[in-house]
Design goal:
Layout: E1 21-23, E2 30-32, E3 36-40, H1 44-49, E4 60-64, E5 69-71, E6 74-76, E7 85-87, E8 89-95, E9 111-119, E10 121-122, H2 123-131, H3 137-140, E11 146-148, E12 152-153, H4 154-157, E13 164-169, E14 172-178, H5 186-193, E15 204-206, E16 214-215, E17 221-226, E18 232-236
Parallel strand pairs: 3-15, 5-11, 6-18
Antiparallel strand pairs: 1-2, 3-4, 7-10, 7-16, 8-9, 8-15, 9-11, 9-12, 13-14, 13-17, 17-18
The structure holds manganese (II) ion (MN).
Length: 237
């Protein structure tokens, strides 16, 4: 009458999902992905091309599911439900220490390292969501939407506050800017975000994209390059 059914030895009632993880440059150990946060509109030219006013808006955030993370070098099926898949070249910050209410002056102490990333976006679904004042989740958080190149330890490459960021689709240069053009630099991003949620080791933060976002078609390869880091390339089937 009471108590667990026969054969119940604890554990999980369905197989637990695998922990999402990503490659680390030069190591066999991998990066365990906890949460994926993304900053909207962090370069003024991109804010303008998306219809915003870069001078007035504090940073805002959205998330992708941890299991949307995919390492660079992958051949991906073209995402469903879109006719307008866009690339967004971004610096990804990997947190080795957590915390809430982090001061900007202390924020870099929480950074383990960096990677080149691509915040893949179903732009048609995002435009519809904006028009209807609906959430962005299905535009931004679809399967394999968070492309992350090999992670590099800050202890090896330093902290990145400047340097070239670029995106190519096949051999055509689509985006080219400097990390120094961020409206909110990495310490400010982490300070703002940590006032909204408690951050923890394993968290990744996509720090926004410069101008020049545009479509990727089936059969094309999209490569994000950041000075000092290995690139993040994906090919779409
Ligand atoms: Mn983005």
């Amino acid at each position: 009458m009471t108590g667990p059914p026969d054969g119940d030895e604890g554990g999980f009632v369905v197989p637990p999902p695998p922990r999402p993880s990503l490659p680390v440059a030069g190591r066999t150990a991998r990066w365990p992905v906890r949460r994926i946060f993304c900053v909207g509109r962090n370069y003024s030219e991109h804010a303008r091309e998306m219809g915003g006013d870069p001078g007035r808006e504090p940073p805002f955030f959205f998330q992708k599911p941890a299991d949307a993370a995919v390492g660079g070098g992958a051949a991906l099926p073209f995402p469903p439900a879109t006719a307008d898949l866009h690339h967004e070249a971004e610096l990804v910050v990997a947190l080795g220490r957590g915390g809430a209410g982090i001061a900007p002056e202390a924020a870099l102490d929480h950074v383990w390292g960096y990677a080149a990333g691509n915040d893949l976006t179903r732009r048609d679904l995002q435009a519809e969501a904006k028009a209807l004042r609906r959430p962005w989740d299905m535009a931004k958080g679809f399967d394999a939407s968070a492309v992350v190149g090999p992670l590099h330890a800050a202890a090896e490459v330093g902290h990145l506050s400047q340097g070239r960021i670029a995106c190519r689709v096949d051999e055509v240069l689509r985006q080219e800017a400097d990390l120094a053009e961020m409206i909110w630099p990495v310490p400010s991003v982490l300070a703002h975000l940590s006032r909204l949620v408690r951050l923890a080791p394993g968290d990744l933060v996509f720090t926004g994209t410069p101008a020049g976002v545009g479509p990727i078609r089936p059969g094309q390869t999209c490569t994000v390059e950041i000075a000092g880091l290995l690139p993040a390339a994906v090919r779409f089937l």
